[in-house]
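Exercise 7. Given the encoded structure of a 174-residue chain, write a plausible sequence.
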C-alpha cells in the first residue's frame, strides 16, 4: 500500500471552493506537511491478480507433489536434504547455474515445472500466500495481492543465467 500526496498551500480561495462543493467539514490544507490525496492499495498488481485466485486443488496437489519429488531425487542422487527455505533456494540457484555451465540447461517443461514448484513452495512456506492463477499461469499470490511467478523465474534463469540478471535467489530475497 502506498500513499499519493502532494505539497499544497493554504489557499483560502481553494478552501472556499471545497466548501461550496459540499466539503464543509473538511480540514483546511496546510503547507507544513504533505497532504494525503489518495490512498493507493495494490496499485501495480490489481490488473494482474484475480480477486479470488483460482487454481484447482488437483493442480496445487500436483505442484506440491513435484516439489516433494524433486526433494526426494536430490536427497537420493546427490545426498542433499533440501528444505523449503532460504538455504533450499540458494541450492536451487546454484544448481541452475551448474546446469547452465554443463550445457544441460534445456528448459524442458518438466524441468521448469519441478524447479518452479519447489521455488513456489519455498515462497508459500516462508512468505505466506497461496498457489493461484494470474495471466493464465500458476503463481504464488501473497496476502498483499502481489503475485510471484516462480516458474517464469526458473525458466529465465535457465535461459539467461544469474549473470544475465535472472536469479531465483534474487527473486526470492526481493
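Solution.
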Amino acid at each position: 500500500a502506498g500513499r499519493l500526496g502532494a505539497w499544497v498551500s493554504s489557499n483560502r480561495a481553494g478552501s472556499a471552493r471545497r466548501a461550496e462543493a459540499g466539503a464543509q467539514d473538511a480540514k483546511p490544507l496546510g503547507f507544513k506537511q504533505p497532504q494525503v490525496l489518495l490512498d493507493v492499495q495494490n496499485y501495480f498488481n490489481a490488473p494482474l491478480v484475480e480477486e479470488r485466485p483460482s487454481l484447482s486443488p488437483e493442480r496445487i496437489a500436483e505442484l506440491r507433489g513435484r516439489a516433494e519429488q524433486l526433494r526426494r531425487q536430490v536427497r537420493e542422487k546427490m545426498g542433499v536434504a533440501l528444505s523449503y527455505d532460504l538455504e533450499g533456494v540458494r541450492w536451487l540457484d546454484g544448481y541452475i547455474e551448474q546446469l547452465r555451465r554443463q550445457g544441460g540447461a534445456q528448459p524442458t517443461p518438466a524441468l521448469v515445472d519441478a524447479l518452479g514448484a519447489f521455488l513456489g513452495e519455498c515462497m508459500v512456506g516462508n512468505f505466506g500466500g497461496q498457489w493461484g492463477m494470474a495471466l493464465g499461469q500458476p503463481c504464488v499470490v501473497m496476502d498483499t495481492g502481489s503475485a510471484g511467478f516462480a516458474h517464469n523465474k526458473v525458466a529465465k534463469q535457465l535461459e539467461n543465467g544469474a549473470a544475465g540478471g535472472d536469479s531465483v535467489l534474487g527473486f526470492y530475497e526481493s
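Remark. Confidence is low (pLDDT under 50) at residues 1-23, 35-50. Students should compare their own answers with the one above.
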